[in-house]
Amino acid sequence: MNRREALSRVAVLVGGSIVGAEFFLSGCKPGDKAAAGLPLSAEDMAYLDEIAETILPATSTPGAKDAKVGAFMNTMVTDCYEEKDQKIFLEGMGKLNAACSKMHGHDFMKATPEHRKELLTALDKEAKDYQKSKKPEDPAHYFSLMKQLTLLGFFTSEVGATKALRYIAVPGKYEGCIPYKKGDKAWAT
Amino acid sequence: MPSDTTSSVNINAKGLEQNSFDAIVIGSGMSGGWAAKELCEKGLKTLVLERGRNVEHKKDYPTTLMDPWDFKHRNNLTSELKKENPIASRCYAFEEASQQFFVKDKEHPYIQEKPFDWLRGYQVGGKSLMWARATQRWSRFEFEGPARDGYAVEWPIGYNDLAPWYSHVEIFAGISGNKDGLETLPDGEFLPAWEMNCPEKHIAEKINSQYKGRTVIQGRCAHLTQPKQIHLDQGRGQCQARSICHRGCAFGGYFSANSSTLPWAMKTGNMTLRPHSVVHSIIYDEKKQKAVGVRVIDANTKEATEYYAKVIFLNAACLNSNLILLNSTSNRFPNGLGNDSGILGKYIAFHEYRGNVNATIEGFEDKYDYGRKPTAAMMPNFRNVYKQEMDFLRGYMVHYSAGRSNWQQGYDMDGIGEDYKNKISEAGQWNVYMMMQGETIPQEKNHVRLSKDQKDDWGIPLLITSIGYSDNDDKMVKDFLEQGSEMLEKAGCKNINALDNGRVPGNDIHEMGGVRMGKDPKTSLLNKWNQMHHCENVFVTDGASMTSVGNQNPSLTFMALTARAVDYAVGEMKKGNL
């Protein structure tokens, strides 16, 4: 995922460069054409909505489903992913369901919220372990892609940016040092 | 009239009159806008030629008021856009929100003999729409450098020649900054400075107290922190700290030709702005021994037209100004206008941005900032200032900023569910980013020239770029990476990571030279007034004119050189010398 938008919060443009851009930029490389299976069906997007909601559930603030993250994933995977990542993502949708059957004996869509969380916690660990050991040129883990898109889709959505975070389109001024206490929401941009 | 492959239109007496102006400005960007404003204010009927479309302030900034969720891809590039634009998409400012202002790779090809990212903005306002807005005066050390160290021809002007013109452009453009009293970075006419955030201030204090000759200051930039009447008169307002500037600013908070110089010139009634006008060449009259006009190809119809004027300002941006001169051939100047010395297109230099240092800093968990500051802290060059002391020539400016990570911290954090969501919705650690902006040495071999067999859609030869790094650049990067890491360590930073990002020349968007100023017509093309030694009614006042490149962000210097050159040119016209 290209994280330029997020960068604006922590890096500053000073001429020919974002300070530290390379620290963040990765992924979202050019592809030839959409892999078979894209764009996704409404059913697929509903499935992704549930995965995203398990990662970022509605709490005292809205969750991933409120931000229509499933539909956003479809857009991003179709338009911004290169073909090899499209394949990993699409195959991952099947793998996730298979892992759910193995763990809980039924499809993800039929699983309880507790079972979903248990599964995705295990997959998160699996992806993290894989990420640590993989070489840079090795393919990404499908769950890493899903998690990344969930975060991007949610926190840059209107409900995510304005309800889960604080968003001010026109700050009007800059103050360098203001107090912050634990629990305060971060700025969205 | 020169012999040329492009057929000129038949001009009858009426056409000649209709196509005649006092002055022609080629290019409407950073320096062209200034030429237009100054010429029009002095009463000259001025034609401004722009090869791209018109972009009107506010009206033509389609994304300026859009929120992140208004973008289909949340401001990410599609794989198709990236694939079709490997050059443009490497630019930090090329986004879903701003890509409409960048030249697409396929539209305007060029030939890279060595890797060179040529980033361009073909529209009214040029790159002044998307620039990074950091504005520092040169000091005497940059002007004196070439003569002292012998790495380039001597500058024909010094700091004192340009100082009043820096003031002139700063007052109008609106530059924020502190009066820091540094010999290496002279003060100017400033609006209130931006404020450092807590870690930035802490790092500044640590560096300033532990190093002699190194002083961190708040960066100076072309933002209206507190507009004055002259800015309100331009229809501009206070910067709103949104920091999405390269989309064009609905508030006119930063300086651009579109928001400032061009509407000002238009208001005089003396400016004719002609978009979609690709300049083919400058027309040289051998009897009159001067330039008489400009040959223009309409970008859409491909029709050729000639326009005439007493004086011509060339502000097409560095490499295109080189291209136009190289393509302006005649019996008198078979190798390009004014090019008796044979050095036209040579000694191109740029800024070195290959070094980055990233780190984290602890101890400010109870601090945050409000708003989005559109600039960074900076430290003027501290290498080889008073004498040559390193194993490389010249030096570099350092920029850094600090910011608290937000939701993106979740990318590398374990977990899912409610606790995870709550945690990444809070402000994370403070990150520090430092970068260099180094001076590169003008070398004869770093050059541009015209293709002999390939032309663009307008019948103009393609440009060949042959521009690369040198051993000096490598040594400078190494020094910055060591010094940057050491400074951040002494400031108490952790997880320090220094890297050579490997970017290619051109990606800095600070290319300069090729039509350099100098004292001697044998080794330079322009005199101390940016006037061609051998074609006195042609002035080149954009980056092409630079004898050396300094370590400061260059636009402010182009603006000041332009205003100064116009003042001289109009004076000479009044005296009957042009």
> How does the helix and strand content of chain A classify structurally?
mainly alpha
What CATH calls the topology of the largest domain in chain B is FAD/NAD(P)-binding domain
Q: CATH homologous superfamily name of the largest domain in chain B? A: FAD/NAD(P)-binding domain
The averaged pLDDT of chain A comes out at: 86
* Major sheet size, sense and barrel closure of chain B: 8 strands, mixed
Strand content of chain A: under 5%
Total strand segments of chain A? 1
The number of domains of chain A is: 2
CATH-derived architecture of the largest domain in chain B:
3-Layer(bba) Sandwich
How many strand units of chain B? 23
Helices of chain B, by number, come to 12
End-to-end distance of chain B? 19 Å
The most extensive interface, with participating residues per chain, is: A-B, 83 and 94 residues
Describe it.
The complex is a heterodimer of chains A (189) and B (578). Chain A has 189 residues and is mostly helical. Chain A has two domains: 1-30, no CATH class; 31-164, no CATH class. In chain A, 51% of the residues lie in helices and 3% in strands. Chain B is α/β, with parallel strands linked by helices and 578 residues long. Chain B has two domains: 1-177 and 223-350 and 445-467 and 512-578, FAD/NAD(P)-binding domain; 187-218 and 352-439 and 469-503. Helices cover 23% and strands 21% of the residues of chain B. Chain B has helices at 13-18, 30-41, 79-84, 140-149, 159-173, 198-210, 229-232, 257-267, 318-326, 418-424, 471-490, 555-574; strands at 20-26, 46-49, 111-112, 175-176, 190-191, 217-218, 271-274, 277-285, 290-298, 304-314, 346-349, 351-352, 355-361, 367-370, 377-379, 396-404, 430-439, 447-455, 461-466, 494-500, 512-514, 531-532, 535-540. In chain B, the strands form five sheets. In chain B, strands 1, 2, 7, 8, 9, 10, 22 and 23 form an eight-stranded mixed beta sheet that branches. In chain B, a hairpin with a 4-residue loop joins strand 8 (277-285) and strand 9. In chain B, helix 2 runs parallel beside helix 8 and helix 5 packs across helix 12. The longest helix of chain B has 20 residues, at 471-490. The radius of gyration of chain B is 24 Å and the shape is globular. The two termini of chain B are 19 Å apart. At the A-B interface, helix 1, helix 3, helix 5, helix 6 and helix 7 of A face helix 3, helix 6, strand 14, strand 16 and helix 10 of B.
